[in-house]
Amino acid sequence: MSYNEKQVQIMETAEELFAMNGFGSTSVRQIADKAGVNLAMISYYFGSKEKLIEALVDYRMSHVRLTLENLLKDDSLTPLQKMNLLVTEYVDRIVQRHHFYKIMVTEHMLDKNSEITVKLLKMKQRNTEVLQQIISEGQQKKMFRKDVDIVMLMSVMVGTSNHALVNREFYRTYHKLEHLSEDEFITLLKQRVTEEIKAIFKAQLTYEG
Amino acid sequence: MSYNEKQVQIMETAEELFAMNGFGSTSVRQIADKAGVNLAMISYYFGSKEKLIEALVDYRMSHVRLTLENLLKDDSLTPLQKMNLLVTEYVDRIVQRHHFYKIMVTEHMLDKNSEITVKLLKMKQRNTEVLQQIISEGQQKKMFRKDVDIVMLMSVMVGTSNHALVNREFYRTYHKLEHLSEDEFITLLKQRVTEEIKAIFKAQLTYEG
DNA sequence: GATACAATTAAACAACTGTTTAATTTTTTT
DNA sequence: AAAAAAATTAAACAGTTGTTTAATTGTATC
């Protein structure tokens, strides 16, 4: 599916509002007003509010797919280097698309069996397969341990980075980093989160190092 | 503040619905119906929907405060033992009160400067102080490293355990644990998450071991 | 048993909800 | 330039929203 300029504008405005106020607390009129389009255009283009968020999910997920899978087929990299690359890419991505990932986290927590839950599950399965592949390679090359809980490692990576991002203002205050610009601070935080997860992965995957 | 039976019933029903459908997508009529009380009773007791969720937060937070702080003053425990105890207590708590912690996670992510954000910040500050105290003790006794990022460690613990809980069905399917009862499975998951975080803490805090 | 206060109710309130309609304008195709 | 298709609009739709009202019932206090 490809979207024209106005459709993208609506989706990105909705993304921001959903992330800031929650899906249920955001009205289509708010979206229309902020996006500067007529109210009826949302139904015209997307059909409904529910289908709008589904379109947003498709729109954001379509760009993700190819990035990693090709990068990780690189034969010149060791399994651990691939894991490190994966962590860097993931943290970069959720920082860059923090609005979108906020929405994903909230939707993930709701019990309803929506279209979005299905799309999320598919993405998780793809990501797990990539991870599985790297780890299997590391195990074959006797570099990684045999008893690795992949899903748990994903919880560490996804959970830690999400929380660190949501908790960023607390981090900033606690470490007295107010003198940094927003960009400088985010760069620093990103780096520290990445290093933290890499360290955990190394300790858990390899025979200590 | 103390609440009568009916007030508690309303708060706990609201808690379940907020966690399952989100705050914005839950109507006061749904809450009244499910709780078996008249619609007007919610305004009568709490004033508004917003104040209802604030009351819920107070209600749930009031029970938490004392548990840890006393346990951790125990002189017969080493700093590492205290950290392990803290992890166990935390994971236990969010599993037992998973509805409530779902709500906290979602509220934490919203940009609005609500009463709840303030309450959450205060709780975080108290928790950080407790953690700070244990770690300082470990550093004085030369058992813990000097360069420890407390806030990052909290992100690891909070983020990982939240995500593991939300992701539990994926974990169950991936590890083919469908034959376990819900209780058995949750007990297993809880144990694994606890062990995972303990291992990370040990590796990051001590001089390897 | 009267008085005062708390609890409960159904009904009403105005504002807002997502979505549709039907008319009009703009753009594209022929 | 005519015809067809797409985009845009203001207005209306019926249903839901959170909250309040005013009347009634229940329960203590004197």
Structure description:
The structure is a homodimer. With about 210 residues, chain A is mainly α. Chain A has a domain at about 60-205: Tetracycline Repressor, domain 2, CATH 1.10.357.10. Chain A is about 75% helix and about 0% strand. Chain A has eleven helices and no strands. In chain A, helix 1 packs across helix 2 (about 30-35), helix 6 (about 80-95) runs antiparallel to helix 11 and helix 9 (about 150-165) packs antiparallel against helix 11 (about 180-205). The termini of chain A are far apart. The relative contact order of chain A is 0.10. The model of chain A has no long low-confidence stretch (mean pLDDT about 95). At the A-B interface, helix 1, helix 7, helix 8, helix 9 and helix 10 of A face helix 1, helix 7, helix 8, helix 9 and helix 10 of B. The structure holds a DNA duplex (30 and 30 nucleotides).
Helix and strand topology:
The structure is a homodimer of 209-residue chains.
Chain A: H1 5-21, H2 28-35, H3 39-46, H4 49-62, H5 65-71, H6 79-96, H7 98-109, H8 115-140, H9 150-166, H10 168-174, H11 182-205
The structure holds a DNA duplex (30 and 30 nucleotides).
Query: Greatest chain-chain interface?
Result: A-B, 47 and 47 residues
CATH superfamily of one domain in chain A: Tetracycline Repressor, domain 2
Query: What's the overall geometry of chain A?
Result: globular
Number of helices of chain A: 11
Q: What is the CATH C-level name of one domain in chain A? A: Mainly Alpha
Report the biggest beta sheet of chain A as strand number plus sense, adding barrel if it closes.
Answer: none
In terms of structural class, how would the helical and strand content of chain A be classed? mainly alpha
Low-confidence stretches of chain A: none
CATH architectural name of one domain in chain A: Orthogonal Bundle
Task: Bin the helical content of chain A.
Answer: over 70%
Rg over CA atoms of chain A: 19 Å
